[in-house]
Amino acid sequence: MLMRIDFDTLGDRREIPMTTVDAMTRARRRKRLSVAEVARRSGLQPSNLSAIESGSREPTARNLERAARGAGLHLLVVDLHGRSSAADIAGEIAEAEPTGDRWRQARLFVQLSDDLVGADPFVKVLIAAEPPRPIDAEWDAAIAGLVEWRLTQFGLPLPEWVSDALGDVESRWSIWPGAVRVDAAEVPAPLLRRGVWVSGAELESA
């Protein structure tokens, strides 16, 4: 599990981005570990860890490292050069779901495509490393298909979570609002077999 942290190397109390805390919380839940269990393993108070996860208390780098070890995780300082991870993008798409803002969701999806194209190979793998937050069957399949397509284009390994979102080959679902006519020959294979009908040309803005 890789978590991005942006802090300088001086002092114990540093600003920890909430995306890092969110990533740690998601990883803890995926491992089916309770706050109490991670707190016991790390030596932190459960109330302290709960406050950190909820964002009501700013963690020190040391406490975050202790919590990560308690969950069996390792922290890694990574510079993604301003790019977002697949997990971050999925979180933003999920946040837009209740409002029905499909244009925003589609733009975020294209942004992920751009980030996967524009990054160097090491960063591409890191962008895709963390399993995204589940949204719904269509978006989960779309994000997995996009990551598979882009990483395969560059001969890079696929994270395990990509194979979990199979989609529905019969659905002909599109990220765009309204009816969009797309020829099957124009849809990248990893998207097509998941029933996500988006042409490669629509994802080539990078």
Describe how the helices and strands are arranged:
Layout: H1 18-30, H2 35-42, H3 46-54, H4 61-70, H5 86-96, H6 102-118, H7 121-129, H8 137-153, H9 189-192
Domain HTH cro/C1-type: 24-80
Pfam family, one: HTH_3
Protein name: HTH cro/C1-type domain-containing protein
Structure, described:
- This is HTH cro/C1-type domain-containing protein.
- This protein is mainly alpha-helical and 206 residues long.
- The chain folds into two domains: 1-78, lambda repressor-like DNA-binding domains (434 Repressor (Amino-terminal Domain), Orthogonal Bundle); 86-203, no CATH class.
- The chain contains nine helices and no strands.
- It has helices spanning 18-30, 35-42, 46-54, 61-70, 86-96, 102-118, 121-129, 137-153, 189-192.
- Helix 6 (102-118) runs antiparallel to helix 7 (121-129).
Shape: elongated
- Helical amount among residues, as a percent range? 40-55%
Number of helices: 9
Number of strands: 0
- Major pleated sheet: none
Bin the strand percentage: under 5%
**Mean of pLDDT:** 85
| Count of domain modules | 2
N-to-C terminal Cα separation, in Å? Answer: 28 Å
Summarize the structure.
The protein is mainly alpha-helical and 206 residues long.
Task: Give structural attributes.
disordered N terminus, mainly alpha, elongated, single chain
